[in-house]
Amino acid sequence: MAEIVEKGTWVEIQRIVLAPGERAPQVPEDTKLVPLEMRAKGFLDKTAHLGEEAEIMTPAGRRLRGILIEINPAYVHSFGPPVAALSTIGVEVHSLLTEQEQAP
Amino acid sequence: MSRELGYEEIIAQRIDIMRKSLGLDYAQYATGALAFDYERLLSDTGYDVDTAHQVQRSTAVGDTPLVELRNITELVRILAEPGKGARIFVKDEAANPSGSFKDRRASLSVHEAIKRGYRGVVAATSGNYGAAVASQAAKAGLACIIVQEAFDSKGIAQPEIAEKTRACEAYGAEVMRLSVGPELFYMFLSVLKDTDYFNASLYTPYSILGIETLGHELAVQTEELTGRFPDVVVTTHAGGGNVTGTARGLRKAGAHQAQMIAASVDLSGLHMASDNDFNRKSFTTGHTGFSIPFTTWPDRADVPRNSARPLRYMDRFVTVTQGDVFYMTEVLAQVEGLERGPAGNTSLAAAVAIAKKLDEDRIVVVQETEYTGAGKHPLAQLNLAKKLGIDVRRGDPRENIPGRAIVIPEHPAQISVVDVDLDRIRRSYLRNAVGELQKGEQLHETDLEFLAEETGTDRCYVQEVLHEVHRKTG
Questions:
Q1: For B356, which of A34, B27, B94, B449 is 20 to 30 Å away at the CA?
Q2: Is the pLDDT of residue A104 over 70?
Q3: Which residues from chain A sit within 8 angstroms of residue B393, using beta carbons?
Q4: What is the span of the domain harbouring residue A47?
Q5: What's the pTM value of the predicted model, to 2 decimals?
């Protein structure tokens, strides 16, 4: 049984807007093979099951319907580890500037 | 949504939806088959530079510092021939409330939405403009919906856009996130129809007039600091608003001699509507994927006539590589203590190459910075690029291939600009313009004048190119 999510929980829903066969004519071939998908967040309108159809109230006060896919969705974007191709630029440029100061 | 309409149905209603959501009938400005009264469209809004400044000051937008980049100037002089190496300044637009110059555009849009009695605003944008509209709407107490192209079919979000989603939500906006595709326009129209909110498009007169204050401030501040107007202003170029508004503001301040250089990141080879290419761009704005199409035909926008018309205003159009921009983003942080960008630093990378060729007493102004943060950072972009198998390495940036290799310069002397041939761009614009004519429709005198203004040329040039087009197409 899918997890029950309480009314009022901050959630994300997902909906297929256009199936692969319905994409606009100007869309390139690779994009035509996949659907146009929409995701939106809001407060759950009624208690619902994860993975099933649900309705949310968005921060703009709209009611949107879709498949309930996330409970309290996290912000997972980050910086990640330092990248070697950038790591020494600061030292290199500082030494160029210092060499210039020390030049006769 | 109350009743959902299909794609064709919504697209067929676009003119009506636009008119209602803008409160503006663009048809009244038509003066020919293609021509329209651009200046009247802008001036009818009533926002001159002083009025725009007043509106912006009421929400702490604008009046950002102009910062001299002394160490970068010194670096450029090390690389330059003796006597060369112009002074470089940057307008620190990251100091705006939501962290970019886009607050200037959003402030007039939201001000106008309130004046016209709308209860909310909608914008289609994956960039800083979304956060700007959300921030202004929050202060004004208006509802706000931002429609973003945000993730690919595997569900992988472009990290910079993920940060914009967070920022918009932090300002209380509803964010509708979409997968890749131009049908975003359909969803945008659907939202406008569903809500009757104001279309806070990037390309309305308000949005462009909001940037005039940037050009104006920049000219005045440069004169205060150096005793003269800037010789060159370098502007990161995508949809054309930045170039248009800044150039207009410079002229209004009297800085007619300032050369306006548009700079974009070269993303040639990548398709903007491709699901596969979406996360391989490593840049979300300031790139040729926007700047070339919008320069060669501005009216592909989400309003009937675009108020951003960059070809009228650019004296030169250059590209830089992805590697150049990431390198200069790092340099800006490491030697000037300003962690900004990355996309906004496109103009900075170009400025380094441009300043190197100019005399030491010349002034180059880089026209914007933007805030940086998680996702919106070279590390986030390069880590994603590596994960997707893109080769990230030091080397000669001329070996940079968008989507395949990001080559970070080994030395600042390797940073260069490539000129986009403006003659080709103008011809392409004119071809597109003729393509807009209905079958059998003729150009009028006013159209020829208009096309000359649009391309920054004269009637002879326009007629010559049009003859060529006719010859080729029969």
A1: B94
A2: no
A3: 85
A4: 4-76
A5: 0.97
SS3 B159: helix
The amino acid sitting at B341 is: G
- Chain A residues in contact with B175 by the CB 8 A cut-off are 40-41
- Pick the residue of B74, B126, B179 with the most A CBs within 10 A to test the interface with A by mutation: B179
Give tens-digit pLDDT for B114-140: 999 999 999 999 999 999 999 999 999
At B379, list the tokens: 């590390």
CB contacts of B348 in chain A (<8 Å) are none
Whether residue B47 is contained in a domain is answered as: no
ipTM of the prediction: 0.96
Is the residue at B1 inside a domain?
no
**CA B150/CA B155 separation, integer angstroms:** 9
Give the domain CATH number at B160. 3.40.50.1100
- Look at chain B and report how many structural domains it folds into: 3
Q: What digits encode the pLDDT tens for the residues B148-189?
A: 999 999 999 999 999 999 999 999 999 999 999 999 999 999
User: Do residues B263 and B343 both lie within one domain?
Assistant: yes
The residue count of chain A comes to 104
Residues B260, B229 contacting (CB under 8 angstroms): no
CB B252 within 8 A of CB B215: yes
Q: Which residue, among B11, B69, B156, B174, would best test binding to A if mutated, counting the most A CBs under 10 Å from its CB?
A: B174
Cβ contacts (< 8 Å) between A102 and chain B: which residues? Answer: none
